[in-house]
């Protein structure tokens, strides 16, 4: 079996448009949530979201290209190009047929779908844009990244709702571990802050109706009432260890475990007994060949919904047993909102950065911990702590659970 390391990071997020700025703002407890500006949201009953700020796609592609991609592809390509640059890789120096892309989106080109359905209704089907289909379909974030990077190995997308980004990282890890690839760009991208995105999740009563951005995303708090929609992308360069060492790459950390399970319980609600997500965590721990007590930090799915936060707390206890009371947990969704299919990708980056800096980002909105949530969630202010192993949890509609376990880089020992 091959060992898999991380050699490049890229991110466009509500709290920063590079991986480094994203991380520094998480450490500071910066809140990326604010009033919705992309459209008039009054009729949805929702007033806040976590939008990107001052994002300029022409830093990464020609303006003409942005007209032929939905925002989710634009975000994903931008993050992937950052990760490629950060890795120091030159495409002419690698075997492109062993360089893959596994990049996901939970929904795909929702903005494009909305715009073109309206156009069809108002002006007829002959007025649908010629690029409607390639702009809308969810696999195109992977396809566009492959095109921009020149990667000709595996190129696929995994759609598991809010677990998509973590599943992408996990499957990339396996592709390298089992010898099918040398390099894989992996992550997720999402752009659903639009009328149908906000309105649809509002109709499901999944979104927070709070008008104060500082009280809207409050994971594990007794007053939580729903999640806050976010947007953006995160991409990681995963690389076979010997390949990375041979070229003198900067190594951020190592991927050592992956779990992927199903609750087989309910369309949108997690299993309250925590068994599905708990088993997923245990699978990642077992693959890493460590004990539950060795997990130093968990970046929780932590959506700020009444059902998730209790069920995830139960799942952590299911997986870690007595060690659950000692592990440090936080939800960075308190700052970024919920990026759906991209959530696990930016949260994977947060785990890697936590390992590198030995620092736990806070759960900033947490004021009054819910009675059923009785673990250490790092409320309000981040914390210095040695982190050797960090776990990223993602739990999606449909009962999808995905977990990645990362380890501090300690050389090739």
Automatic annotation (TrEMBL):
UniProt keywords (A-Z) are: Acyltransferase, Fatty acid biosynthesis, Fatty acid metabolism, Lipid biosynthesis, Lipid metabolism, Transferase
The domain of life for this entry's organism is Bacteria
Which species?
Answer: Vagococcus intermedius
Keyword Transmembrane helix appears in the UniProt entry? no
Residues at the active site: 162 (for beta-ketoacyl synthase activity)
Entries under NCBIfam families matching the protein:
fabF, PRK07314.1
* Similarity-based family: Belongs to the thiolase-like superfamily. Beta-ketoacyl-ACP synthases family.
User: Which GO biological process annotations does it have?
Assistant: fatty acid biosynthetic process
- Organism lineage string: Bacteria, Bacillati, Bacillota, Bacilli, Lactobacillales
Task: Tell me the protein's name.
Answer: 3-oxoacyl-[acyl-carrier-protein] synthase 2
E.C. designation(s) = 2.3.1.179
Q: Which Pfam families match?
A: ketoacyl-synt (PF00109), Ketoacyl-synt_C (PF02801)
